[in-house]
Amino acid sequence: MSISRSLVLTLAGNRVVTSFVSKYGMKLGASRFVAGESLEEAVRFVSGINKEGLIVTLDHLGESVYTKEEATLATDESVRIFEAIEKSGVNSNVSVKLTQLGLDIDPEFCFENMDRIAAKAKECNNFVRIDMEDTPRLEVTIDIFNRLLAKYGKEHIGLVIQSYLYRAVDDVAKLGENQVNLRIVKGAYKEPAAVAFPEKSEVDDNYVRLVQNHLLSGCYTAIATHDETIIHILKKWIKENHIDDNLYEFQMLYGVRNGLQRDLVKEGYKVRVYTPYGKDWYPYFTRRIAERPANALFILKNFFKN
Ligand code: FDA
């Protein structure tokens, strides 16, 4: 992790910064990374982008929830997303974060909430993916995922693995034994060198290795990155190794590398856009700034222009 990225994540936790950005955030540019504050707005966006050949995973923003009432409301909302997808006929699945469903309150309560969402995914013949958060939550996230995988099957539930973690290669191998559908990402949290590669080049090399390993195990793989070099390497490798096109998709974040998303669609690749919506956008927004501190300058310029 570069110093500037670490600095942005530290500043984002500062109380003064939090209250300023929360107040002016949408004007500051959070809307560049967030599709709207309501489910209705988000579904309208999906409908439009589907017409361009892109598919979506919808994420109701929110994490680190501290009351059971909030976690229950967040669970209801994810269930409601599946109903809205079914009703509107748009092409989208759903992504969720376990801390939004009460992981930090009581893991068993969180399991029950996640169980309700996975049941709905199956009922709607759709799919839910559990995002991966920071390492203190990793083991319990994998446990909850494995229990639900046994109940609902890999067609209806998937997980995320982060290539910045040393342990990721073992996790991918183990999850591959059950033919799990994995999204591979580089990782967006502030992690110590004791658990994560400090050098970007090591994170990138590991990224390519994890995608290749998972595909060679015959498992569905979501290649979630905006890194053009990695995308180029993997496209070439996939062709050379005759990997079935039904075994993978590319994924990118709403508002990031829009041109590249559409170029891949034109080349015939399946591309899914991770599309967050909702009022609780602050932590998500700050991670997007941290990934590319130049975004902060762009956003500040817009603020003073408006
Ligand atoms: P990298 O950071 O090297 O960026 C490559 C290039 O992409 C940059 O040079 C720039 O051009 C562009 N870019 C990247 N981020 C940008 C940004 N914010 N703004 C503008 N340009 C940007 N993480 C996690 O820990 N748990 C999770 O569950 C998920 N889920 C997830 C889903 C999907 C669909 C994606 C694409 C990503 C995630 N992530 C995630 C985030 C991921 O871990 C990572 O932080 C970002 O994808 C940025 O890394 P890249 O792979 O894009 O490479």
Characterization of the model:
The protein is an alpha/beta fold and 306 residues long. It has a domain at 69-247: TIM Barrel (Alpha-Beta Barrel). Helix content is 52%, strand content 13%. The protein is built from 12 helices and 8 strands. The protein has helices at residues 3-12, 15-28, 39-50, 68-88, 107-123, 138-152, 168-176, 200-216, 228-240, 258-266, 282-291, 294-305, and strands at residues 55-60, 92-96, 128-130, 157-162, 182-185, 221-224, 248-253, 271-277. An 8-stranded parallel beta barrel has the order 1-2-3-4-5-6-7-8, surrounded by 7 helices. The longest helix has 21 residues, at 68-88. The mean pLDDT is 91. The structure holds dihydroflavine-adenine dinucleotide. The site of dihydroflavine-adenine dinucleotide has 23 residues, from strand 4, strand 7 and helix 11. Its EC number is 1.5.5.2. Its cofactor is FAD. FAD binds at residues 132, 162, 186-188, 200, 225-226. Substrate binds at residues 97, 287-288. It catalyses: L-proline + a quinone = (S)-1-pyrroline-5-carboxylate + a quinol + H(+).
